[in-house]
Predict the 3D structure of the following.
Amino acid sequence: MTPVSSAPPASKRFSLKAALLALACVATSGAALADTLSKLTQRQFIHTANKTCHWLSAPEALALGGGLIQMRNAALISGHSPQSVYGIIHQAHSAAARADCRNPALLAEVDTVKGAYRSFVTQNRLTFTGPKAQWLTDRTESETRKWRLVQYQKTGDIHMALGLHGFTDRHALTAMVQFPDDRRPYSARLMVRDPKYRPSGVIDTAPFGLSTTMPLNITRYDHSFTAQSRHLTSMVLEDAPKVNMAGFNVMGEYKGRAQARPTIRFDFPIDATTAIARLDPREDIIVVFEFADGPQYARFEAGDFVPGLVFATLPSPYGK
């Protein structure tokens, strides 16, 4: 009598190692980059397999997806070609579609992901640093209207910010600006590259700043989102140190208090976040401020906008 084997059929015997084999064919740019690509492969594999195996809770899966995009961004910023990066993602995705949900090595990797999530979600603030700019996130004081995800810019006496503003569970995609001499744009648009029209973008290495001409990496055929509302308010548009009412920080050092200035706020359709998610992290998000005498263009780095958005909207372990 032929013994009955309890092992899964050959077509099901796929683990994380199967996806990592694909990495060996393309990871040739040094140990640090290979480590980034290895993490990218692992996260894509678990993320895809979870859709069948249902190991992770919804917040855990959301955090894993954000981490996957962060690893993709790190690989692209490190200089790896988009073709290789997306090739790795595709190969890991294909291997994971045939994964054995009971594979012990795979279950151990899932436990590692769960442990990483428990550590990750206890943090209330994170900084996501890109080649030229930072996305700052803040999940504290859930019922206070504030920046939840923001990138600040300053050009001379012009202060600008772009990100998510509001409560932890109710916020808007917002641009704010402070022009001197009481100058006030009457409207604004947010523009990003349309991958269907232009599959690859232009990486503009020029310093950030306002210009009166359309930036090199955008065209009139790309995505354009007109602001849905315009408000006048008063804000501090800079990464000011956290201080008490007397101007002292938690270390007892006097830092003073940044002064709020008249600010114009524009809220854009939240659907624009999906368009931003498709960008190369080195590309720009364009905010166009419309004046009677012509537009002025501001560039913000796409960077880790999506991982920052994920972190900012995850449930807090300390309550709502």
